[in-house]
């Protein structure tokens, strides 16, 4: 499996496209700029099979409907956030001046249990990692040594918890019990900013040291 990080929109939210030897791909967190995503997909001659969301905040969902409709593929989100896609007060877009309310149609499928998961021909571990939002999840591709962590863990930082139903203590617990138990050489693909590793965050992240 290969992957690419594509920062999108004014908040430079990282979308990810993971793809395999059969040229199938998953699209993760298509936040904006549908054209940029489609250019890469078409350049690589990939066939999208699903959109999977780490969570449903506005900066991660802006291109969900255009991409879904163009490729005729399903969308997955955690059941805790099944109403967030269509509600700008829940997904956060109504809280920021200068941002038009951002919404998408409801997801086609909901994550309801964590563990081994297969979507669109890709298998991975689904971890519930709430705290930044109640339905935040992370996708661990063990064979490739990467975890796509959304806004749970960043290089040198952690997700904000001042949006609706954020919880700092729950976030820290998620990071320590789910992410920091992964092999230390695992690459962390965050929702914003550069790629990091579990080892780097264990050793240098000021929000995690001393917990």
UniProtKB/TrEMBL annotation:
Its cofactor is Zn(2+). SMART domains: Lactamase_B. Residues 12-192 form the Metallo-beta-lactamase domain. Keywords: Hydrolase, Metal-binding, Zinc. It holds the Pfam family Lactamase_B. Transmembrane segments: none annotated. It comes from the Bacteria. Signal peptide: none annotated. This is MBL fold metallo-hydrolase.
């Amino acid at each position: 499996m290969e992957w690419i990080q594509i920062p999108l929109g004014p908040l430079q939210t990282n979308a990810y496209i993971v793809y395999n030897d059969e040229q199938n791909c998953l699209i993760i967190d298509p936040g904006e700029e549908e054209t940029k995503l489609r250019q890469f997909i078409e350049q690589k001659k990939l066939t999208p099979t699903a959109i999977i969301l780490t969570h449903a905040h506005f900066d991660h969902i802006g291109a969900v409907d255009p991409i879904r409709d163009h490729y005729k593929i399903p969308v997955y989100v955690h059941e805790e956030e099944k109403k967030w896609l269509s509600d700008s007060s829940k997904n956060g877009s109504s809280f920021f001046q200068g941002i038009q309310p951002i919404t998408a149609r409801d997801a086609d499928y909901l994550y309801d249990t964590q563990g081994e998961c297969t979507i669109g021909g890709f298998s991975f571990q689904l971890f519930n990692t709430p705290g930044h939002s109640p339905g935040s999840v992370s996708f661990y591709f063990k064979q490739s040594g990467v975890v796509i962590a959304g806004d749970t863990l960043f290089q040198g930082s952690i997700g904000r918890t001042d949006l609706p139903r954020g919880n700092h203590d729950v976030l820290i617990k998620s990071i320590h019990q789910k992410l920091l138990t992964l092999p230390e050489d695992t690459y962390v693909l965050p929702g914003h900013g550069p790629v990091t590793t579990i080892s780097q965050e264990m050793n240098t992240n000021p929000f995690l040291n001393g917990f």
